[in-house]
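Morning!

As promised:
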Amino acid sequence: MTEHDVVVIGGGPAGLAAAIAARQAGAQDVWIIERDKRLGGILQQCIHNGFGLHIFDEELTGPEYAQRYIDLAEEQGVHAMLDTMVLDITPDRVITVVNKKEGLQTIKAKALVLAMGCRERSRGALNIPGTRPAGIFTAGTAQRFVNMEGYMPGNQIVVLGSGDIGLIMARRLTLEGADVKMVCEIMPYSSGLKRNIVQCLDDFGIPLRLNYTVVDIRGKDRVEGVTVAAVDENRRPIPGSEEYVPCDTLLLSVGLIPENELSRSAGVELNPITGGPVVDESMQTSIAGVFACGNVVHVNDLVDNVSTESAIAGRAAALYALGTFDGSTPGITVKTGPGVRYIVPNAINLARVEDSVTLYFRVDNVYENAALRVSTDKGVLFNIKKKIMVPGEMQHIKLKKAFLEKQGDITEVTVEVAGEEV
Amino acid sequence: MYDVVIIGGGVTGSCIARELSRYELSVCLLDKEEDVASGTSKANSAIVHAGYDAKPGSLQARLNVEGNRLMEDWCAELDVPFKRMGSLVLAFNDEDMRELDNLMRQGEANGVPGLRIIGKDELHAMEPYVADNAIAGLYAPTGGIVCPYELTIAAAENAVVNGAEVKLGRMVKGIRRTEAGFDVETSQEVVSARYVVDAAGVYADDIAAMIGDDSFKVKPRKGEYCILDKAKGYLARHVIFQPPTAMGKGVLVTPTVDGNILVGPNAHDIDDKEDTATTAAGLSEVLSTARKSVPAVSERDVITSFAGLRAVSGSDFVIKPSDVDNRFIIVGGICSPGLTSAPAIARMVAGLLRQAGLEASLKADFNPIRKDIPRFREMSDEERQKLIADDSAFGRIICRCETVTEGEIINAIKRPIPALTLDAIKRRARAGMGRCQSGFCMPRVMEILARETGIPADEITKKGGPSRVLVGPLNKGVAYDDRA
């Protein structure tokens, strides 16, 4: 069994940022384990621009954004084990991996960072009835076929779900000559970014049908068409609203699921709302020395956020490996109040906070002219006026360490949506 | 000219092919699809029934109990996953209790060993997740589960290794009786044989009609199913039935040999022999009925759903030489317990062929043993290490959900019946069977398939025929700006 200071599982944007931060924080021996043949994760296939506006103040493509981190990782002497799958992790941070060259190996990590990302929800998980022909793809799989392999997945396309990848692919396939007939979204609002709805649908005249879903798939060998229908407020199809749409392809962009099979087998506590590990301000999970960051924790809209959050995890993992991590129990629990679906992190140990801690969260509905209220067990701290908040756009609030310290011995911080305008 | 042509590569036809390959005979198996196990045999309950459901004296009763007994040896020889963990029929009220008594008496008459009725406490100890209002159960220790498409594939492969031919993508268009036997006209050629076995599932009546035999009709009865994530595999330890109805054995909840939970089927008579579409109403019926047995069954845990067609012909199997020509053996109406009965049906058909005048001696070199693809996910670390040392392709994981290696996929492509479609690979190696339903591994499997076979990536199909996965290379379409 070999031993390393910090082992990062996953070489996407989260893993890269964590590994670089771990090196910068003084860990000597930092390894990324990546199942693909190269680093970069899903960014490799995201050839559209819009990445890096926050971190680099530039509009980069996915591969460009990834390359900056890959170069930096190399500069910093981060090691990478590519084309290698992690089969198992134990609570005491022993990792079993397999690859073609070395076969099975076990690795002991002084500190472990989980950065496995997420996967796409499939047709089966939605239980869409109908036949089972070729021509049904998750949007990300279709993106890989187009951008990495150079193939068209279909010619007449219906997109179910308005997640960002679905919106991006609606535009991408249109540019390649496909006829994208519509994007159906079962909710009354899109789960994608506003800018993607404008730039990917509106600019190309692709209709977005809110409160719509696919209720039947037809075609024995290849998709021949789908039946779409309007849904009521309980998301049940409204009889009589069905409409048959001939097409050869159904793309699904119906949600991303943090990929935590390994975390679960190690006994890491998961948040049932996000499907990701419960973490504190240092991105430490319920198991000491096991950290998590990026989409494995909660699904982000912007890679910039992933990089920022992952650097926190990497730095903390380095300190843990070096033996200088403050192991005391966090004193503050972070809670969600009405209107907030989930929040990350779930606890704060003020002693470990350098300057400030940022809370990331999503609201559970569309709120116009509402306010975000931050309170403690001792009372309301402040309200922030918000013109509009939608579930598809992650919110964040930065709390200064000094400000929190001023509140005295608080044990809880709660974020909620205050209904009325303030 | 073959000695025997078998029409239909389902579990029945494939087991018959394997049984006949024990003899010095030339045997050819035809199927209209691009793989065996492409019809009812890939979409059913996967149950090895104990044998208490069938009416005493029926073919179903005899062949079920005999097939159940043979299943163990067949699966051991063919390296097919089979678990004899027992089955339970639940009772919720006094009427159900009387039904359990009837089933038990019927089972005893059929020669089913070990049947007993268990009380509420024992039931709930055996199955902690069954509904609180289940008051008793009929326990059948010989009930179990098998992987139906694996059994079909394994039997067909073993037949091939022992000299049988399997011709796929052959739709039978017509059959002409000749002095020597039959000329079977397929979509590709005319295949001549001295004897024909009609094991064509829901189409068995149409095939028999080709020689003028209208003695039976097959009516498809659709059943829909849902598969739950392996994370819910703890919900059932045995095959859990509800009391049977006129339409069949009802909705069951059972583990699969791979550790998922299978719920279903409902039962609806239909006319279209190709209609395997699921419906919203049907899936919701399956889930809500399953919850009567195991309330924790949730649509949130469903990873996929499917429908299959039972080949129903009256109340029993139809296995007989045709009255039109006794060299034509009908094997029709093979609905449940057809999977369980398959090895016994195969023996019976061999007997009917003998009676019809087919003489053959046993092969001296018949090899009953077939080895499955090495299953990396089920191995110890030592076994895995050795496997990778022998062939490094077993060190590369392609399907992350089911932990399937590149080596397993290559093996599937190079078996006696090569897997040349995505579904064929999925059924043999399990790549794409997991919770992400091939979102991750599909492009990788296609890359391997293209590399190993030379099939261009954009000509790879999901299940043969016009089921191409991709429509072509990029830039074949009209650029957006150039469109009218």
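The CA atoms of residues 220 and 272 of chain B lie 7 Å apart.

Hope this helps with the figure draft.
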